Fold this sequence. Notes:
The chain is of the alpha/beta class. The chain has 3 domains: 1-65; 67-136, Ubiquitin-like (UB roll) (Roll); 141-283, Cell division protein FtsQ/DivIB (Rossmann fold, 3-Layer(aba) Sandwich), CATH 3.40.50.11690. The protein is 39% helix and 22% strand. It contains 5 helices and 13 strands. Strands 4, 5, 6, 7, 8, 9, 10, 11, 12 and 13 form a 10-stranded mixed beta sheet that branches. Strands 1-3-2 form a 3-stranded mixed beta sheet. Strand 9 and strand 10 form a beta hairpin. The chain is elongated, with a radius of gyration of 38 Å. The relative contact order is 0.06.
Amino acid sequence: MNRKHRTRTRQKQINILHTTTKKRHSQKQVTQVVVWGTLVLAMIAVLGVGLNFGINLLLKQVLYTNPRYNLSEIDIEPKGRFTEYAIRQAANLEKGQNLWTLNLPEITKDLETLPYVSSAKVERHFPDKLTIVIRERVPVVKIVGLDSDLGTREPFYLDRDCFVLKPRENETAPVLPEIIGLTNAELEPGLQLDQPSLTRALQILYAINHSTLNTTIDIRTINLSDPLSITMVTTQDMSIRFQLDNIDEQLRRLKQVFEYADNLQRTVHTVDLTPNRNVPITFSE
């Protein structure tokens, strides 16, 4: 009995000793791995910094300060609509700048602040050329408003997105419908007007010009004095009153009116499209 007890006690002591030695051995291995891992990471970091410095130095000498890549030509499309001086001034461009160092997104953003520029695309053409392609804003109506800088009433244009455009110098004035009824509207080139009735009016005008109605209707004035409707008068003195909504449906009804008038061989004088049912019309005498 005592002999068995002593044997078990001895085996237990041996097992405890073996386990303790194994734990210490494992901890030592973990410590070594951590140390070596830290050293390797430190060496990689040092090599990375050195490599980055070397690459930057090489790029600076080969590309960024190489006179071969100095800007010498700016090609602007469409030609003749924007002067190189105006483009360079807006985008802070100068001849002699290194083509590699130019920030094209920033140049694009600066160009799109010009009143007549809807969008711009800038491309590098190595070794020394920059191409700028401009999508121009096209005037669709004219409006007389208060110049916010001069405090005087002057003529302006609007494009289909309601951006204000100032007439160019020595430009032949285009024949455009005139917006009336917006009293004391302060206008500034490049400003986008936020007028729901104006937005709707330009949408209606665009729809007319891009449909079969464009051969029948030639708009002269667009009256926005009524906040609930839009009245357009044609060059033939025909008056058409529109709702602010349901543009497609109103144009469909307007086509039916003209078809009806053609069948009667009469000339329409006024059309009121604001009622939801029926369309009040009058004919010219």
